[in-house]
Design goal:
Blueprint (H helix, E strand, L loop, with lengths): L8 H14 L18 H9 L7 E4 L19 E4 L6 H10 L2 H11 L32 E2 L34 E6 L2 H25 L5 H8 L1 H5 L13 E7 L2
Antiparallel strand pairs: 1-2, 2-3, 4-5
C-alpha cells in the first residue's frame, strides 16, 4: 500500500491501528501478533533518521539491566539509557502520543480479549477485571530505550497486572536483526518441574541467608549475584530463570 508522504498525523495513526486490526494472532508459544510495518515506511525511516541524540538519554534501571551473563566482564552494565523527553521532535511526539492513546489501548484489548477459534483466550479471563470498564482506566506505558552491549533479560513471566506487552524496534537495515525478542516454552516434564522447584527454593533460602548475615549490600555479594553461578542458584531475581529450563519456540528479529 503506497501512501502519500503528506499524510496528516491522524492518517498515520489510523494506518497503524488498521495494521493491528488486520494482523493475524499467532499462538505458538502464546498468543501474539507480529507487524513488520506498523507505520508507513517513509514515516518509519524518518523517525529512525531523527532518533534522539544521546544527550537526550539518561541512565536508568529497568528489567534485565544488571543480569547479563556475558562472558566479557567489560561489557557488563548495571544500567540502560532512557530518553527523558520525547516531545522535542514532532515525529517522536506523534509516536509517544500514539502509544499512550486510548485508541491504541482499545485496539489491543479488542484484539486479544475475544476467544480464538481454537478456544484459547489470549488475555486470560481472570485478567478481564482490569479493563471491564473500558480502556479509560487502563494505562499504556511507552519509553524509548537504548540497551547497552551485554544487556540481557532471561526467560520470565510478566507480572499478573500486565495485560499485554508490545515492542517497537527502531533500526536501520538488518544489522541488528539478531537483537530482537526470543519466545520461550518451558520444557516441562517431571524432571523439569522438579528442577524448577529446587531452583526457586534454593534462591529463596540463599537470599534469606544473605539477609540474616547482613551482606546484601556488600559489593562482593552483589557481584556474586550477577555472576553465572549466582544466576543459576536463583538469587538474582525471583522471576527470571536460566535458559536451560526452556526451549526456544520462536525468534523475532529486531
Amino acid at each position: 500500500m503506497e501512501l502519500n508522504p503528506t499524510l496528516k498525523p491522524q492518517e498515520i495513526t489510523e494506518y497503524a491501528l488498521q495494521n493491528i486490526r488486520q494482523a493475524k494472532i499467532q499462538t505458538n508459544p502464546f498468543p501474539h501478533i507480529l507487524i513488520e510495518e506498523l507505520f508507513p515506511k517513509y514515516f518509519f525511516n524518518s523517525i529512525a533518521e531523527q532518533f534522539p541524540d544521546r544527550t537526550e538519554f539518561q541512565k536508568a534501571i529497568y528489567p534485565g539491566i544488571g543480569t547479563s551473563i556475558s562472558k566479557k566482564r567489560e561489557h557488563f552494565k548495571d544500567y540502560g539509557l532512557v530518553c527523558n523527553n520525547l516531545t522535542k521532535s514532532p515525529l517522536w511526539k506523534l509516536i509517544n502520543d500514539f502509544f499512550n492513546s486510548e485508541g491504541f489501548t482499545e485496539e489491543l484489548l479488542a484484539k486479544f480479549k475475544e476467544p480464538l477459534p481454537s478456544g484459547i483466550v489470549p488475555i486470560p479471563k481472570e485478567k478481564h477485571i482490569y479493563f471491564q470498564d473500558g480502556a479509560k482506566k487502563y494505562k499504556s506505558v511507552f519509553a524509548l530505550h537504548i540497551d547497552l552491549p551485554g544487556y540481557e533479560i532471561p526467560p520470565h513471566p510478566d507480572i499478573p497486572e500486565k495485560i499485554i506487552t508490545y515492542q517497537l524496534f527502531v533500526v536501520n537495515g538488518e544489522s541488528l536483526s539478531d537483537f530482537g525478542t526470543i519466545f520461550c516454552k518451558f520444557k516441562g516434564g517431571i524432571l523439569g518441574k522438579l528442577s524448577l522447584r529446587i531452583f526457586r527454593k534454593t534462591g529463596k533460602n540463599l537470599s534469606k541467608l544473605a539477609n540474616s548475615l547482613g551482606i546484601n549490600n556488600f559489593n562482593v555479594y552483589q557481584d556474586f549475584k550477577k555472576s553465572k553461578i549466582g544466576f543459576w542458584l536463583g538469587i538474582n531475581h525471583k522471576n527470571w530463570f536460566p535458559w536451560g529450563f526452556f526451549n526456544v519456540a520462536k525468534t523475532i528479529p529486531a
